[in-house]
Amino acid sequence: MKDTFNKIKTYFSTHKLTKQILLIFFGIVVVCAIISAILCFSKTQNTSETEFYIYPNTTYKQLCDSLEAKNIVNTKHFAFKTYSKAFSLKQNIKTGYYIIDKKMPVLKLVKHLRNGEQEPIRVTIAYARSVDEFANLVTQKLLMTKEDLSSEIDSLGYEYPTMVYCDVLPDTYEFYWTVSAKDLLKKLKKYADRWWDKKEKDLEKSGFSRTEIVTLASIVNEETNYEKEKKRIAGVYVNRLKIGQALQADPTVKFALGDFSIRRITSDMLKTDSPFNTYKETGLPPAPICIPTISSLKAALKYEKHDYYYFCAKEDFSGSHNFAKTFEQHQKNAKKYHKALNARNIK
Question: Is-contact 235 308, C-beta < 8 A?
């Protein structure tokens, strides 16, 4: 009887222990499930796509403060702290420009920042005259300063800084915010080289070098916005070059003076001592005077063949020009234009 009692007692004791173990196990599973749910389903707080910059030498605390200031994520939240530690975010803060999608999973956010998965920035390079103007235009949206870019251009060893325009085409490019000045210029040159490779036959047929065409196009670009006349104006300058006649292009005088606000060129201005002053120097200037548009480049490459050696802005200020084959006819055209300038008191 005693043995039977002991067996019954042992049976109930064992099953009671089993139930306790099952309860503990079930509790662990529930806790793990809750933690997993928190980790898996935690998302950022931003309700719209958000731009986010990480600057050089940013500390982990500064990163967290910025994330919270932008209302992207609560960095004290269990999910962010867990993922940040798991992926060593503190030790791997990457400088860059990022786009944080709305309600992005926190796991994706941490990996995004930890891996430095930057979003490229679109930079439009259009019109620029001086290198300082070019550098300012290009770097407005980038981490580098205009001084960084200007310094890199200087290091290329050009005799004249605007020679860099021979390796730049106006277009919209994509760069990472952290791109170096050296890599940016390499990308611009690579793009320009591809364009010029396609124009090899046109370039050979023109009888000029790439530098000469870009320089000619830059003058044409400054002379007119009237697309229909660009090839004709280019042809005038080519005619002058062929006979060794000075180009006498007003835009080169403005460039030499560094003052593009001038509306009327005076006789004193024509005496400016500069290799860019085509009233004093024959031939093309030693470098471009601006970044020419694609249409200006094409006009220079396929200049119009004619017998014009002169042109003058029309007196109606329409932006178009009167062209002349002789100096006498040109003087008549110039007289009408100067009369219109005087009438408007433009000095």
Answer: yes
